[in-house]
Design a protein that fits this description.
Shape: globular
Radius of gyration: 20 Å
Number of helices: 15
Distance between the termini: 26 Å
Order of helices and strands: HHHHHHHHHHHHHHH
């Protein structure tokens, strides 16, 4: 009977993990969509097109606005997860090779663990720290090439963007879920707030591309729908339901999916890259599990 009562919660958590993982998986297609379909030299405009229209569509669909303190909380989350994240990541992408930028992004589980310890008083175990480091090493093997170069401004921007999203994860866990609000509405608030921040940056700093073809329109639609509104809805839902130590490592899927897309487009993976892929996947899966207890290890040793 105890086994029957334990299975439903485990099954529900597995389903939640799978749905949440779709968000970083969708974000992993961003680099290929940007390079193959979007007008070059307008990363901030692309971020604006990804965020603001999706946020407005979500607001129309849900017809739910923030109440009370959630006006400023939604604004803070929107700036951290959208408005600050996009410009910093675009700057890192311009100043660093894609592999270096992706490896910096893979440090997010470690940053989340540190922030959770400081803000939530949730001390991560050695198990979490070890697999977090393993995930970074695995992603590094997949995406770092021998010619990878470091640029101080790019590194600071990459870590800043990663820290910004990590702070958004931890703050949402601290504040809890807004009462009576669904994940679509919460995602819409953030996208709209972050998109509004990007309006002056994109229009004043870059302007509108001279030509937006059908391929670019398709790219913007993908980034705004699956890579924007749907992904952030699933991500917000997952953060609200999963332990912080289980949700953060799922971001490792983003650079891994980017690598898979590269293979589909004609690239190949070397043996070290394949090993790194396996390590990163193992770290992501292990982060969903509890560390084996001493009693369990001792019992196994006796057998």
């Amino acid at each position: 009977m105890s086994v029957l009562t334990e299975r439903p919660p485990q099954a529900r958590q597995a389903a939640t993990v799978a749905l949440t993982a779709l968000a970083p998986a969708a974000w992993g297609t961003t680099y290929a969509v940007t390079t193959e379909l979007l007008p070059p030299g307008h990363p901030l405009f692309s971020g604006l097109m990804r965020a603001l229209p999706a946020g407005l569509v979500g607001l129309v669909l849900t017809r739910v606005l923030p109440r009370g303190a959630w006006w400023w909380k939604a604004a803070v989350l929107g700036v951290l997860n959208i408005g600050a994240l996009y410009p910093l990541l675009f700057l890192a992408a311009e100043r660093l090779p894609g592999g270096v930028a992706a490896t910096l992004g893979a440090t997010q589980p470690l940053l989340v663990a540190g922030l959770a310890a400081a803000v939530l008083h949730d001390r991560p175990t050695l198990w979490r720290w070890a697999w977090g480091v393993t995930g970074v090493l695995g992603v590094g093997l997949v995406v770092l090439g021998p010619g990878a170069r470091l640029d101080a401004v790019g590194v600071v921007a990459g870590l800043g963007g990663t820290a910004s999203m990590a702070a958004g994860i931890v703050l949402l866990k601290r504040w809890g879920w807004p009462p009576g609000v669904g994940p679509l509405a919460l995602a819409s608030w953030q996208l709209a707030a972050g998109g509004l921040v990007l309006v002056p940056l994109a229009l004043v700093g870059e302007g509108v591309p001279e030509r937006i073809g059908s391929g670019a329109v398709a790219g913007y639609l993908w980034l705004g729908s699956m890579g924007g509104l749907i992904a952030h809805m699933l991500w917000s839902r997952g953060i609200g339901r999963l332990p912080v130590g289980a949700s953060a490592p799922l971001v490792l899927l983003s650079p891994l999916v980017a690598a898979v897309v590269g293979v589909v487009l004609g690239e190949s993976l070397s043996l070290p890259q394949t090993l790194g892929f396996v390590l990163a996947l193992a770290a992501m899966v292990a982060a969903q599990l509890d560390a084996p207890s001493r009693a369990t290890c001792t019992e196994r040793g006796r057998r």
